[in-house]
Amino acid sequence: MRVGKIIEIEDLETARKPMYKMKVDLGELGVRNIVAGLKSFYPKEELLNSLVIVVANLEPKSIAGSISEGMILAVDDGTNVVVLRPDKEMAVGSKVR
To answer: Measuring CA to CA, which residue among 6, 22, 38, 25 is closest to residue 94?
Structure first.
């Protein structure tokens, strides 16, 4: 798991559920495309340029015709979804321990 910074975000129009397609900077691991079902819970402006926790060692997967190269961690209590974020400024690409 790594700290990533969301540097680009757009609606994924081909998805059946509300989803975003994002570019996430993972430092030395490079910029990854990540598809996430966060559109119903966050406006783009709230996620853009924010730090998030990313599972970076997953095999790429095709989701709604787009390749997703990781997963942004979030908590779902059945009503709300909250993205996991560092509580202090951290370097992009930092390992989560």
So the answer is: 25
Residues in the chain, how many? 97
Collapsing DSSP to helix, strand or coil, 28 comes out as helix
To the question of pTM greater than 0.90 for the whole model, the response is yes
Contacts of 39 (CB under 8 A, 6+ apart): 11, 18, 19, 20
Class (C level, CATH) for 2-83: mainly beta
> Cα angle vertex 42, ends 39, 46, to 5°?
130
Q: Where are the domains of the chain?
A: 2-83
pLDDT digits (tens, 9 = 90+) for 1-10: 999 999 999 9
The answer to whether 69 and 33 have CB atoms below 8 angstroms apart is: yes
**Residue-level pLDDT at 14:** 87
CA 70 centroid distance within chain = 8
